[in-house]
Amino acid sequence: MEIPLAQELIFGLVIGSYIALGAIGFTLIYGLVNMINFAHGEFITIGAFVGFLAIAEGGLSLPVALLVVLVVTGVAGWAIARVTFEPMNDAGAVPLLLMSIGLGLVLRNGLRTVAGAERRHVPVPVETFRFDELGFFVTSQHLTIIGITLLAVLVLHLFLTRTMLGVAMRATADNEDLALVSGIDTRLIRNTVWVGASALAGIAGLMLAISQSANPNVGFGQLLLILTAAILGGAGSPYGAVAGAYLLGIGITVSVALLPSGLTALSSTMAFVVLIVVLLVRPGGLVNAEVRAS
Amino acid sequence: MSGDNEPTETSNRRRFLKLAGTGVALSTGLAGCVGTEDGGTPTATETETPGDDTPTATEADSGTATGTPTPSGPDTVTIGQPASLTGQWDFLQPAVSQSTDLASQEINEAGGPLDATFEVQRRDTAVDPQQARQVVRQFINSDQVAAINGLFSSEIVPLWDFLQEQRTPIISPWPGSTYLDTRGGDKATPSDLSDDEWLWRTVIGDTVHTSGAATAMIENDFETMGILSATTAGEEGWTSQFVNWYESLGGTIAEVVSAEAGKSSYQAELSRLFENDFDAWGLSFALEDATTIIRNWDEGGYGGQLLLEDGLMSGDLIDAVGAAAEGAWIAAGSTQGPNYASFEPKYQEFGDAEIHTWGVAAYDATNILALAIHHAGEANREAIEQSIGAVSREGGTPVSTFAEGKEALDAGDEINYEGAVTNDDFTPHGNVWGDVAVSTVTPDGFEQAFTIGADTLQGRIDDY
What does residue A136 show for φ and ψ, rounded to 5 degrees? Predict the structure, then answer.
């Protein structure tokens, strides 16, 4: 017996996972560094290119490539932030926002100049598991992206709740001045956030490189969905961002199945209709609380 | 805890939304102003325009060639080439650049039009209408080009009125749009400029090759089809045309599923499409998304005969999904016109860009422009416009290169340029006819399976 919409739910979880990996880092930076990072898409792009180099050029397996991407993108993101955002920490949110927009343009066009505009495909064998009697199939790529995202959420949860650094991070998000006088090294916290957010963005980039290709625009193309997921979930809340990302992903794929013929192109629009409704009904987003408030 | 801080949360949220909104607006605005893809930067065959960069109104309006005029003619004649050096169609540009440069070299080896040096100024439009508008302005006002060789359908259609105002002859190897089926050309009245629409194309229109694609499907007993199409103008145009022809030939379209470009997965759209029963399915997307879709299709094990839109005839498709798409069909204008055999070895020797229809058509467009300039006897835009039909339509001595044409013109003969991709006998609307070749995708490339002749298609298309 076929399960109605099971296939669409799986596809929605896959799309949601791509968005979630980007949205977690995006919203963490907002919650802890107090800035909206419009260059976050470029951190995803860096991850896509590092992943391409690791797998297609370096011949590494996917698990090893994931580790390489985690490390390289995390360090690269931290270094970029150190050079560009750190000196402006006290300048306020708007200058940081402008800096991030400019940085995004520079990185995007810099990557295009260095790497060229061509798309680089990452060859990864894909196995398909069919459950025809239940009305769906799932591929190894689907399971990988969903599994990585769930693992990332679990690790993040354990980090925030079970480690001193995580507790200090929450304290800093709640009140940075108070955290500082309490002896917390807030600079270390910021650095940790940049490394973690960039590393997660890099993983999203690697997975996008596998499903699409590594190209200079691959991350920028995800930015609007990431921003929407962060708003939907509640700005600054990583758990909310994950929930928002999956709601968006499932909203998009289920819309494709349910919309009348000729209107399927509006599936992404329907996801944003959900966003508008949520904002009207629950202005604080899904979790109705931000990291600093929790 | 959150309940205690509600005013703060609302404030934070409002602040986030305000900042995000500001950021999106700024990001979009900056992308438009700055140009995220090397907008307008002259590349490839870059030329230094002699004299003042800011032409007087008289200079710009007269459309004279660049260079210091001499009693016998200009030193240099420049044409502008709007190019897709970046953007989603950039993979098609190398062949067009290579063909244009090959033609340009041959033209100069033959002494050039009006015995002047022939130059091509290439500027990137990223196939963006606004960037294209800026580039056309630069060509006319700064580079003072005699004519333009290029522009995609998605640039021409929104800029149509603007292009008409420029009164500059444009021969493009790119546009397939049905919009141009009844627009463009000189309306077969070369001496009367009042009805001219200044746009000519050396590649067959979508009307012709979608008709060929539909004929191919029907003749091979694929009587019901599904279509997965992007919502971009070019892809929707292909889909609409194909569906019209296919249904008019007796075929049935089970469903057209439309989707936005740039998604990370198209599994949901494929799942929706394959809920229908059909014999074959068509895919009308640009390369980046098409490769994602073909991978998704292969992974999902959907099966069925696949027909690809003509724009996907690229080696990049083979490299990315050649094995997954094995057996798929692609119907495109045949590259092999009357003089393809003589063109092809020269092209292969000149560079290593992968050949395709638009690349061959660019060779023809460049030669026709140079011959029209020579025929006009001056690098005046109106005179060139009046000469385009004269050097290419039936009648006169058949020629296949600029050198042959120049020699015949200098001898006082009329000429008929016969191109590498079509015979370039322009219709009154500035269009050309050609065969449609149906090729099969293999892991190693495209293998031509059969051809639908232009004669077959000509009988079905009334106004073109």
Answer: -155, 165
